[in-house]
Amino acid sequence: MKQWSKKPIHQGEFYRDGSPRAFRPMRWLFFLPLLILFAPYSILATEYLQVEGIVDLKTTYGDGDLDLESLVKLGKERGVDVLFVNDHDRSAMEYGLFPFRNVFKKRVELHSINKGGAENYLHGIRMVQEKYPTMIIIPGSESSPFYFWTGSYFTEDLTAHSQDRAVLNIGLEEPEDYENLPILHNGFSLRCFKDSLPMMLLSALPLALGILLLKWRGLVRISGIIISALSILFIINTAPFRSSPFDQYHGDQGIAPYQLLIDYVNSKGGLTFWNYPETRSGSRKVGPVFFNTPPYPEVLRQSKGYTGFAALYGDTITVTEPGGIWDEVLLEYCRGERDRPVWGISTAHFHKDGGAGETLGNFPTVFLVGEKTKEEILFAMRQGRMYACRGKYPQRMVLNDFSVYSSIFGAKATFGEEIALKENPRIHISLSQKEPSESPVTVRLMRSGELIETLKGVLPMEVDLEDEYFSPGQKIYYRIDARGSGQLVSNPIFVVFG
Fold this sequence. Notes:
Blueprint: E1 4-8, H1 25-28, H2 32-37, E2 49-57, H3 68-77, E3 82-88, E4 91-96, E5 105-110, H4 113-116, H5 118-131, E6 136-143, E7 148-150, E8 159-161, E9 166-170, H6 175-179, H7 193-213, H8 219-237, H9 256-267, E10 271-275, E11 283-286, E12 289-292, H10 299-302, E13 308-312, H11 325-334, E14 343-346, E15 364-369, H12 374-383, E16 386-390, E17 397-405, E18 412-414, E19 418-421, E20 426-433, E21 441-447, E22 450-457, E23 461-467, E24 475-484, E25 486-490, E26 493-497
Parallel strand pairs: 2-3, 3-6, 8-12, 10-13, 13-14, 19-26
Antiparallel strand pairs: 1-23, 2-15, 4-5, 6-9, 7-8, 9-10, 11-12, 15-16, 16-25, 17-18, 17-20, 20-23, 21-22, 21-24, 24-25, 24-26
């Protein structure tokens, strides 16, 4: 590893926005010709507001304890600026008897967005938003698009696999966006009708024969009735108006059902985040049915086009460790193997205040925006201009600044952004916390998956580092995490060497 040059920031060396004092506007005039010459390689520092939001909130539109207005009131009391509502879009399971699994079946369905009506859900959000205009409410849902059965009800080993693999959909604004989600049991759809036609036609052939036999009497007529009835059952069993091309009876279908959902949400202008990918609570028994969803961090590698994943939530997580799956995916982006980076957020999985020992405000995601509007929040979320926190409300760490900048041209990029450099990168880190604490904090700085610096101390902490790594033509990234009185995970800053 190359050597670092580092020193603490002294008063007056940096302004509040983290830019070096030597390059404030009047002194930039001297370098204006060079700034114009190297404009393709530079971006100037932008002033951002930090806006606190909570992602993955459940309400009485699904299985949450609080109605939306009560949730908004609680959020205002806790100083939250943005609420992301992610009730379950459809919470249903079916088990049918072979060979007519789609005819003779038992269905269990809980309250959800689509059961109560997506129009009612969105209308309710709009009404509360109008009543509380200072709170930004962003609609969405949580999808469990697929599961599959093994075992049998009759042998008492019936098991539903992968039912807890969850994706958060954010920013869907139209009722049909929810009604047409390609998930199991989501209701009437023409999506699979074309694919069902061959089997329907094949099942219709015996029906024609059965109808002909009805003209006869005696056993021939009875045979015609049986053939016709069976044919009709087979036609119905093809489920031509199902909402997903997959079913729960043909084993694990890999990443395909989830990729279909991600692509659909993208087509509607929404965002998708894998939720709690390392959950340890996916194995349990409910009545006669076993549930088995082991941790699924591998989906971050297997799927494409999603916006991000839950980097902090109420469980242990390892994918954010240096060189872990997140770094593998980010390196794929740097090599041009992915069209977009993958961002980390906090998800609350909030059902009620005090549930599972957690309160509203323990898992904030903090956004960097030009102004506090819904559009700016969604744009920052799409661009990765956010960091994830875990704490005990009201305590949490604050990332005042994490940036890579040029000491020559004054260019600067923060998390979610990209900067082009013709020199060694300089990194500025400034951390504090909402409530005073003497708890020790460990801050780790990673470069492209490699841990390159560990800083220990108490907050507030402010440091300036120069990385002597320089590789023309290469794209790299820096990211940090911090642990102490809570946790913090930043999104990456990308650097392209010219």
